Amino acid sequence: MGADNEKELSLKLFVVLTRALDSITSKIKDDIRGYGLNPTEFAVLELLYHKGEQPIQKIGDKVLLASSSITYVVDKLEKKGYIKRKPCPTDRRVTYAVITELGQTLMDEIFPKHMDAINDICAGLNVDEKKLLIEMLKKLGLFAKSI
Amino acid sequence: MGADNEKELSLKLFVVLTRALDSITSKIKDDIRGYGLNPTEFAVLELLYHKGEQPIQKIGDKVLLASSSITYVVDKLEKKGYIKRKPCPTDRRVTYAVITELGQTLMDEIFPKHMDAINDICAGLNVDEKKLLIEMLKKLGLFAKSI
DNA sequence: ATAATTTATTTCGAATTCGAGATAATGAAA
DNA sequence: TTTCATTATCTCGAATTCGAAATAAATTAT
């Protein structure tokens, strides 16, 4: 059962990591669908909600999405009335995405629920374990990114 | 910087988990593309390589994919000649996917390289840390799935 | 000042995934 | 046995994502 050498251990880590995140995101998706959004729309909306207006291009960095995909998501959120585009006055290449009143109202309503849901989903570990896990994941992730 | 209550800690855990896995999978994808496969194709091929022939439906469970998606991936691998379909003699609803000689040869060649790559990518933690991380992720994931 | 390069966004087509429904076979119930 | 429900696979259309190329504006270099 246990990995008998470091390579197998690394592979096992990758598999367990993938499956753990899959279990979690599958539940989180259920929560988000209940708000009439998909996970990407929610992520973009949340970014604007918490960090204020953003150049469209910067959204991609934070939400881990290609710029062409951002265009698509921003279009959808705009059609739903939750955000709007706003041209940058100093650089005409740039377009900001800004959350609307409707978007604000929605997020005021659903974000607390969303946090509760995530907390419930992550209740398999206690506070200290979560802190430890976060540190280890940061270490793992930063190293992987640096290669 | 640090989360000041449990809900924020859970949210942070989710974000860090997502980003860590993203950093890792992005590197693993690079590795797999180098073998002329995409990650899903590789996962299916690896399953058949290590676990032997599988009913198409069971592949979906292990690779976390809907049955209609499995059909698509199996079609592609079959066209590439790495696997073939084999009807089940006792249950005519069932079709097995079986790795071919060509698929075997490919995996004999690339799987060791793939394990090396994963090990390099995961080298940010030592063996004990990996073991600990695995246990915590299992605990987290199993709980999330059970909700 | 003009040209060349870089940057931001969008368009377009392709790849991947899903869910709902179709088809066919098996198993259970009457 | 005939019917009903379940199971396995596939088809189809829609959603999402990407990468390459197009467009347009800003910046840098000559």
UniProtKB/TrEMBL annotation, chains A, B:
Location of the HTH marR-type domain: 10-142
GO molecular function, a single term: DNA binding
Stored InterPro entries: HTH_MarR-typ, MarR/SlyA-like, Tscrpt_reg_MarR-type_CS, WH-like_DNA-bd_sf, WH_DNA-bd_sf
Keywords assigned by UniProt, alphabetized: DNA-binding, Transcription, Transcription regulation
Biological processes, Gene Ontology terms: response to stress
SMART domains documented for this protein: HTH_MARR
Pfam families membership: MarR
Protein name, per record: MarR family 2-MHQ and catechol resistance regulon transcriptional repressor
Species: Salirhabdus euzebyi
